[in-house]
């Protein structure tokens, strides 16, 4: 979908459909354009459309104007209006038009601008909403929107914002593609070659092999990889455009989580191809940061492996040693995420980072606590968590903070090793984070559990069913504020 910004009036815009956003109950918003439009709208407002959030109605346009159709879209109550309402209305409206064969559409933006909101949020919702994953379909869907023209007098300012938004949306869609791709094609090696394909003048990529991991003493990560024939990869991306110490983002990259010998039930196991959603987000973020040439020093790490129950798989009760020397008793091989993250956090410390953020589909308990509506956030630094909260409000990739009480340390005590990797159901969300905290120590660190939000079982206004790509928009907005 190509985006254009034009300073022309609505009635002169040649298009299949012109989108007119309405706040609830306000039928007069377009009266100044044309008396025929005004008359049609008044009629609709008396019955079938009143501008409720995400309501849509498509009508033929009056003969005297250039657009062929008008799509009225509701933004809801004006007192509640936010950028999220705009994104949602956009996703709904643009998908609706696409599914009805429209190719060339336009948006009237003055109502959005009059509430001090940016029509760019509409573009964001539209680009994210029309995402499809058709790689494995023999017959592709022919319904595609070619042009979306934003009608606005503010062309220059919007063009700069548009570049940022298009870059972000492309990165979210890259993450979604990687996650939606099944694990027979999305192996650790495939993640590594995706990372290598992002390489350019300002983005260095290094892939550590199994023997390198052995040398480094990544016994925790290697213990997860042992049950699979797919070689693990430890992928490091480095983008440096600032002199201070780096921020490291680590993304859990289990390309398939069967649970290992602590095997998961068959029902729903196919979902576990999404257990590399954290890693996919990190790749999306690194791509966008380097394309936008943001003035930061950022390192991305993907510890990538499968978790399978092969003949040489790790067995419950085994003890392994992590990169920083701590020993771990593996009570449950399905609690593999914290093992690979422990080694990744240990490795990240070498860069003397000013912050480590990990993003991971870590626990089923995350969605038990928060459903599919929020990321669980835990960490050891207030300032960084506050900044993440701000970015979360802005992007609607919402976070909810959970505690790291020191008493949780007890839960992770092993009889024979420094730590155990599972302490049962009680507090499973927070104890998994506490486990990571033991490795982060006093380096500023925040953990984001995206197990409830990485995947959606239903279509949302701008997140089609499947991988959400969550984390990309959140962390890019955070980084923008960090500089
Ligand atoms: N990848 C899963 C967590 C998960 C579950 C993500 C469901 C998305 C949906 C993780 O590796 C896992 O298996 N966690 C276990 C840990 C338990 C054995 C301590 C869990 O949460 O059940
Ligand atoms: Mn698991
Ligand atoms: Zn997992």
Describe this structure in words.
This protein is of the alpha/beta class. It folds into two domains: 152 residues, Leucine Aminopeptidase, subunit E, domain 1, CATH 3.40.220; 312 residues, Aminopeptidase, CATH 3.40.630.10. Helix content is 35%, strand content 21%. Strands 7, 8, 9, 10, 11, 14, 15, 16 and 18 form a nine-stranded mixed beta sheet that branches. The protein has a six-stranded mixed beta sheet with strand order 1-6-5-2-4-3. The protein has a three-stranded mixed beta sheet with strand order 12-13-17. Helix 4 packs parallel to helix 5, helix 5 runs antiparallel to helix 9 and helix 10 runs parallel beside helix 14. The two termini are 31 Å apart. The model has no long low-confidence stretch (mean pLDDT 97). Zinc ion binds next to strand 10.
For the termini, the CA-CA separation is 31 Å
Mean pLDDT: 97
Count every helix, treating DSSP H or I runs of 4 or more residues as helices: 15
Unreliable residue runs? none
Oligomer: single chain
Strand content: 15-25%
Under CATH at level 1, the class of the largest domain stands as: Alpha Beta
Give the domain tally: 2
How many β-strand stretches?
20
Concise description?
The protein contains 15 helices and 20 strands. With 483 residues, it is an alpha/beta fold. Strand 12 and strand 13 form a beta hairpin.
